[in-house]
Model the fold of this input.
Amino acid sequence: MKKILLIATGGTIASGRTEEGLSPKITAGELLQYVEEHRAFCEVDVVQPFGLDSTNVYAAHWMKLAALIESHYTDYDGFVISHGTDTMAFTAAALSYLVQNSSKPVVITGSQKPIDLPVTDARTNLLDSLRFASDGRAHGVNIVFGGNVIAGTRAKKERSKSYDAFSSINFPNVAVIRDGRIIFYIDDRNLITEPVRFYHELNERILLLKLVPGTDGSILHRLFPYYDGVIIEAFGVGGLPEYGNVPFYPEIRRWRAAGKMVLMATQVTHEGSDMEVYRVGKVIKEEFRLMEAYDMTLEAAVTKAMWVLAQAGEPDRFRSLFYKTVNHDILLGEV
Done:
């Protein structure tokens, strides 16, 4: 029988009503009491490093979770993290970079309604997660939610209330879970040829800039002192405007000359960027050798940039690390 560590962090799944609205109140041990069926296939220990609405979760918490997994890695066959849905995709992506080559599963789950309600998705999601974490084929970082198993770098919350809140973007589901049965679409355990590796640093000085019509480069000028890298969320397949009092071109030159990361991404959820299609993207990409996110999710691009900047001191090293595929995060990268 597999031994699983349940790591509770708060979120809707553990929330109760207060005068100010829902807030995490249910403990890790209490969560487990709602899914007694797990006793048929696994033994579970519980730990609760924090209890937060996931709106309040950021890089310090991701590193705390990775450190907790590292300290208990040899003690358990798998790990399940209960988490709020709002930043779950960021946490799953970050853990994909902080915990690499894991032959053991790290599963993140949560719910759209608290677990103590008569009608809720919480009990199904938690039980499915424990079941998946107990399967000998499971490995690496994945989200289990609404019967879908999604690679940690490919998940995005696309619905704010529905039970099928998460989708796998530009990549198929790893598996689905139906009536207690796990059906794998991707079984790549044999591709893990290196031992698990834990990373202990992220650089949080990453700016995500979403363009709106009328934005000019003055925003980059003002924020230059505060960030080591910028991800520009552009329109369509990618490009930069040529209007405004402060053009983007000299500001991009300034950031690149200072050794800062400049990465282009797209506001469009599906199919990714391709800056070489239109002049507004091709010219600036070639002039400054800009990187682009291609088919990556924004959540993965942001957290990978944090990981890359913490590991690489040289701009050329940014490129090679960013385009190294981790947990299925990028299919269309370049060198």
The first strand starts at residue 2 and ends at 8. The CA atoms of residues 119 and 254 lie 55 Å apart. The chain has nine helices and 18 strands.
